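Follow-up to my post from last week.
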Amino acid sequence: MAIEFSSVAATSRRDFLARTGAGFGSVALAGLMANETKAAIPIDSLKPFAERMPHFAPKAKQVIFLFMYGGPSQVDLFDYKPDLIKLNGAKVPDSIKKQKDKVGGVFNACKDELMSGPWKWAQHGKSGLWVSSLLPQTAKHADDLCVVRSMFSESSNHAPATYLMNTGAILGEKPSLGSWVTYGLGSPNQNLPGYVLLFKVGGLGGSANWSNGFLPAAFQGTHFRHEGSPVLNLLPPEELQSTQRSTLDLMQAFNKRHAQARPGVLDLDGRIASYELAYRMQSEAMEIGELSSETSSIQNLYGIHDKNKDKATFARMCLTSRRLVEKGVRFVQLYNSVDKLGWDGHGNNHEFHERNSAQTDGPIAALLTDLKQRGLLDSTLVIWAGEFGRTPMMQGGNGRNHNPYGFTIWMAGGGVKAGTQIGATDEIGLRAVEKPQPVKNLHATILTALGINPDELSFDHNGRQERLTGVAASWKTIPGVLA
Amino acid sequence: MHGASPSDSRHFIDSVEPVLKAKCFSCHGKDKQSGGLRLDSLKAMLKGGDVGAAIVPGNLEKSLLIEAISFKNPKMQMPPKEKLSDKDIAALSLWVKQGAIWPENVLVLFDEDPGFPSILSSGKGGARIVNEGVASGKIAMAITPLQRENPKIPNWFFPIRENPNEGEFRYLRMAWKKKGEGGIMLELASNGSWPDAKVSKGRYVAGPNTTGWAAISVGEKAPSEWNVVTMDLWKDMGNFNLTGMAPTCDKGEEAYFDSIILGPSIASLDAYKVENHPVAIVNSSGGSKKKTGDAFTDSENPIRKIFKGERLDLWSLKAPVKSEIPKPKQDSTNLTNIDRFIISKMEPKGIAPSPKADKRTLIRRVTLGLTGLPPTPGEVNTFLVDTSPRAFENLVDRLLASQGYGEKWASHWLDIVRYADTNGYERDEFKPLAWQYRNSVIRAFNSDLPYDQFIRNQLAGDEMVASTPRNSSDVDKLLATGFLRLGQYDSTASIFQEESRSNNEQMADLVNTMGSAFLGITLSCCQCHDHKYDPFSQDDHYRFRAFFAAIKPNDSLVVESSMDLELINQHNSAVDREAEPLKKSLATLLEAAKQKVIGERKSKFPQDIQVLLSTAESSRDESTRKKLQPFLEKLKVNDNDARASLDDMGKKRATELQKVISETEAKKKTARKAMSVLESGQSAPATHVLFQGDHSQPKNEVKPGFLSVLNPNEAEIKPIKSNSTGRRSALADWIASRDNPFTARVIVNRVWQHHFGTGLVATPNDFGYSGARPTHPELLDWLSVEFMEQGWSVKKLQRMILLSNTYQQSSFQNPKNQVLDPDNKFIWRQNVRFIWRQNVRRIDAETLRDSLLAISGLLNSQYSGKPIWPTIPEELLKAQPGILEAIKGEDGGRMQGWYADPIDLANVRSIYLVKKRSLPLPFLDVFDLPNGTISCGRRDQTVVAPQALMLLNSPESIRYAEALANKISKTNTSAQAGIEAAFALVLNRPPDADELALSLEFIRRHAEKYQSKGEAKNMLALRDFCRTLTNLNEFAYLD
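User reply:
Got it. Predicted complex:
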């Protein structure tokens, strides 16, 4: 019995190239291309994540996007507003109320009353970054952060604003940031997906937040679980695990005969390769999930055994994200929420912010510390952002409504000018007034840090040259973020 | 330079500007600035881009623009794709040499247009045209007090800016004079509204102001002779969009206005002369109703003006015409007309078609292609032994007549209309009625509903049914209008006052989907601006939108035929009659109990109260009433109190009665409802073009109309019903027409694509310039006309294609052809493709799952009802915020959740599984299920590792393998028989000797591993073998 099962894919691929003399270009066009669409970047169907050259020297190579689900309150975390503290309980100044906004009304459902949070404010680090007492651990990294206090969104509603932050459009039909990045650059590790998501509860609006949209499906985000087998269906049921290889061997022997009778049909070679990749993924991905292999000091730094279960969960995600980055995964995105609520404190902002801060502050600080001590922070861009911020006006008992007009995000690591603060909101922290930044500018900044020209990362679809930053090419990088 | 003579300006307007617009602005204009350079104004050209100024007026040597277009410098050649014609290069060079005169555009609001007064509608005053004593040209306008007003003049949307770019302005100039006493005034509307009465900006007055409105004074006295005034509108009013005006005056006698113009600079105003603008720019809406012709024949057609006569050679704009059927050299009676077109094209290149595929391949190809299910081993054998010449034809006819045909082809259609069962966005609620649309599509394919009628039903089925549907065909017309409701809908938008944005998105989505699905055109591209490639204007997008302006969602449209409705009513009356005596018995029982309770309570009241209560109510005085009030309250006894007072026997009786009543009433039937739309009368709200597609910036109003390039006039609308505008019927008639150049071609191409992997036009949703050209235009047109002549019958079209030799060719390589055309594939934009063999293709997600169910014997092929919710891993459900809310019971009954059905119920064809936008079914999703938010004309066919994990490891796949092994082992006892049966089911063929040997060895080794399982070991080994076969390329791909 002579079953050939070693490197079936490689052989048949080599055969193929020898047979037809075709170069990579035509290989790329044949496989993944749907004919409504034309890949501006040639994608090798056998290796969709093959690394591709950036347009210019990148400042960051990998990304960890910490998505703060539900809209964290800028005026309670990073945007210190002494006037708001003074005006606590006062009516909203007429000058502020009068202004017309493009996005639906945030005054709706808010009281005509300003509310300051109960937390203490202090400046931290050499940069003197204002951080409230909610985030004591993050505050220790003040000089690592570049804080942008003048972001604005185009919807005051969760799903559209979350879509905007993740896909550049409020409609939920476009490719997500991670899809664009992996489509543009591939990923250093061929045995793991290039774009990984970690969440207990994913973004509002569902899978459209990590969709590949019209890009090839290889660039869809893959959900990694923070416990157990890291990817759904990574392993067969236990009784089949020991025969997995022999099953694959018979299959690939048959597949090879089938493909040999059909020379030039690249998808067949591609599918043979995909089974081998899946097999390699089984071991590599399993390894990612083995957090117990970390030293106990690292486990404790993140807090993966914390009594606060929500914190422990998020800590596992943060630690997993570091392991993924270490293994060369290009783009990792985390959602912090453990329920449907996240930071969305309409009726009870104080409690929500206490809870979410306690959950995220330590693990995020640990992630920054850990990345730094391993020398990974220089090449990893870390982004902290929600879909919008919250109103300085009171809603309900001590709540805050959504605020798309002005909110804070921060970036750290690869390519970012550390210890800087950019932009400002008005005196009460409602609207971005100094250097206001639309979300597409954030996306342009991220792409630029990765060595991608936002205009050149494009894909023809249904007659339009689509880009993450919009068809109209009207973005600017956020001034002062990139070193 | 603004002192340019008219002839200099003409050179620019006639020969320079069109070239810049057509060849340069797309990369160096408003939307994009490659190399930091804009070329859409003189200012921008002088400023230049990253490498310096684009031109130096008068100096050709130093003008980089001229260097670039002349292709002298190999490093800088523009336009990069194709050098300009010598004529264009000469024109641009001459222009630079003569000093680069760029006459800035002035906009004539009024000078020579006699229809102008009619657009100043309403107001109290009068306006007329005078021919004598004018300030310029031949006419002027006379206004009588008080004013003629229209804050939103059709087509008026003129941005006023500090530094105007193209299409923007800053200054207004006009001539005015006043007869007699009083003041003269000009009022300007900004963004559709007049200025506040107390605010002066927006009004200019000369002379005394007695109007009561604040105004900026531009003269103490009203001029008695023509006086030219120039206003810096930006300085006075800031940034705004001029949308209307009111020339007005007071005190009895007429005022005169003439030559009202807008310009970006004073100099541009100075350069204005009436004779430079012989044609009035503002058209009178009240003027004559002369029809404008299509852009090919009429120079007045707006598309001709916008694109300067270019873009009209788009192949798809000309209606298809049957050309003569070519005669290939190797002609024979075996060839069909399709074959003759195909062969004639490749014959001259020395390429010959491939031989017919073998019969096993053919039956597998055509069965999966038409029904989405594999042939059974029995069907394969029947076909193999049928040696009659009509064997294949009979097979095709059998498949076309099967239920599976409609199920498979409806799923192709559902992709195109982005069908889903939920709303999408945060809540992603279930739409409980949507599935009826899905089933109406299945029925349409199975009954071969003519395609033109299929279109009409979806766009305007409700307008075609008078009131109550008469029969099942009427019912399907109503159900088909579900098409209008398939888009995403964000029910939370209203919470944040974002309805306007959300409505705008829904309308855009509907128009874009309509364009993609029926016409194969990209209307999404002209939502914010004129189309970048195709001859469609921004107005066109909104002209289409206007057809839908009156629709409102309606989920309570009754779709029972009048007879069925009568039967339902009769049935329900019978149920009522049955329940009536039971209800009476219960009422009697409770009433007696009530009286008893009342009597008991009364007896416990103090004596005096009892006495008072026995008096007549009318005889009681106020104080008595007050006194009795609390006691009377106590005598109010409800059904629950009465029931509680019953003895055990009574209680039991009451409970029994109640149960029987409930059971009886549950037998009532409710009329079936449809997800449809509602119009409330024959008129519709106005539709406005939106500035950059922004809902908050409405521009000019448009009326319903089709593509202006073909017909720029308003569509003729004939209301059909009292409660409907008839607009959608007019649209449906235009689309489902033999004259429409797109409709038949688009559907013919889609059908072809599904049988060959690629369409004759490779971009099924884009028949424009950025799409692919047809590789066989004559064949496409011949088939399209034939299709229409054969009554738009999709089944006849299917037969034509399937019975061709071209379809039945082998997919195998032919060494000679391979050299000439290696991929047998369309090569992007080069239009080279011969179709000398069939293409090996992967089966789609649903076909894969349905095949697995079918071969394993699990498939319930009878089911055709409401969406079935399969069980999916709980962690996926809990990861969805919207579902999580429902799990906690906090979704307020909005059906945000996942309502899993028992696993046995889920063994239905995939088209009957729920399509939830925020959580696509993992098994289907991983195999390139489209996302259900935008029209998908052709699915991706990716090959990725997660597909391997799903098919190899998921419990679902293993369940199929187990069922398959079970089924096989029932009738096959030996290992070899099992292997052969598995091959026949999964691959529709027997194994060859090598395969059999490998398989036997596999089964032997696996059975050995399962030694400890005793009897079950052979079954388990067979299961593992089935798992292997169902993962094979040969199973997942079609030859």
